[in-house]
Design goal:
The protein has 6 helices and 9 strands; from the N terminus they run ααββββαβααββββα. It has about 190 residues and is α+β, with helices and mostly antiparallel strands.
């Protein structure tokens, strides 16, 4: 059984009203549709067969959305305490993966242009933060945000970036899902 089928099996055992309460998504009982806010979009899922009504959602995104719906709990809320990727469970093991699939592409594209980074991030619905001149908070799901802090290259230092998460993220996603989520965000920023 693949990841999507497994997630659907789990979702079938959860009442739509409970999914709505746990995830912060919207359940339309009349239309039998759950609307999931995802990266500044609205994704609609037919509860009758758990199919997406939008054709632009790729397989990785479907898995992330289903995992979010399965693992969200009403009791999970943002803590306000930010952690780095290496502080996640097995973060050091996945570090090379996130560096090659997320950090490097972001730095290659935006390492000399913080303004371009902000422009693309705002298109994804990001909000500016005070962490640095080029830092944003991106709402991925109702209960999940990521923070990207970019330091463009200057005369003294090469470009660098950091991705931070609210510590509650590990209650919803496993580290592997977090890598995929960051990769999807990076791809949207770069495209």
């Amino acid at each position: 059984m693949d990841a999507i089928e497994l997630a659907i099996q789990k979702l079938k055992s959860i009442a739509p009203e409970e999914i709505e309460r746990n995830s912060g998504c919207e359940w339309n009982q009349r239309q039998k549709i759950i609307t999931v806010p995802f990266l500044n979009m609205q994704c609609n899922i037919s509860i009758s067969n758990f199919s997406f009504l939008e054709s632009f959602i790729n397989t990785k995104e479907k898995i992330l959305i289903f995992h979010y719906l399965v693992r969200s709990k009403d009791s999970i809320a943002e803590t306000g305490s930010l952690i780095s990727f290496s502080e996640l469970e097995a973060g050091n093991i996945y570090r090379p993966s996130i560096e090659s699939r997320v950090y490097k592409p972001l730095l290659d594209k935006f390492g000399s242009s913080g303004e371009e980074f902000l422009k693309k991030a705002f298109f994804l619905g990001a909000q500016k933060t005070e962490m640095s001149e080029f830092s944003v908070k991106i709402k991925v799901f109702p209960k999940v945000c990521i923070y990207i802090v970019l330091y463009p290259a200057d005369e003294e230092f090469p470009a660098s970036c950091q991705i931070l998460f609210d510590s509650s993220i590990s209650q919803i996603f496993e580290t592997e899902d977090i890598v995929v989520m960051c990769e999807e965000i990076a791809e949207r920023l770069i495209s």
